[in-house]
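Show me any protein, fold above all:
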Amino acid sequence: MPKIVDHDARRAELAEAMWRVVYRDGVGAATVRSIAAEAGWSPSALRHYFATQTELLVFAMEHVMAAATQRFTADHRTGPARHVVQGMLEELLPLDRQRVREAEVWLLLAARAQVDPAARERMTEADDGVRRAAELAVALLTGERPADEAAVARLHALLDGLTLHALLHPDRMPPQRLRDLLAAHLDQLARDGSAAPPG
């Protein structure tokens, strides 16, 4: 009788191996060969699941999106809206080792999005997720439904820009500076919202 292979379980096993390599050595080290070695597989067996480096990155980005969504929507967030919004949006910034590694995947996949449809599709999904987070944040801080489009675009650009600068210039953009810059922007949003005439 032929052996039944649980492909979902094997992909989950590969995901764990891939993220061990990424967290330990950086996303640039996550090659088919290194992940196969980490999982105890042969490279040819791994290529049955991921034929190219881009496919690996797309798979990694799916994990990033799932992890970020879970953190962003955590049930334990309580308190004033301004405090809640800061905590939610900080989950999208590279403030610790895990989130730095996740942002590195985002950056590498972004570089491939111009030439690879699969990378472009995942980047669009990730971008849509950040935009929804920005819409929610602006709506909570200003009380406007729907949220002001220009304010959403500015916050979205700030989140992307802070992430990029933190990856490229970690000495100039340490975690506390990221928090402070985000806080200043959110404070301004809240002030603008409270000063706006009732609609």
Q: What stands out?
A: The domain at 1-51 is CATH 1.10.10 (Arc Repressor Mutant, subunit A).
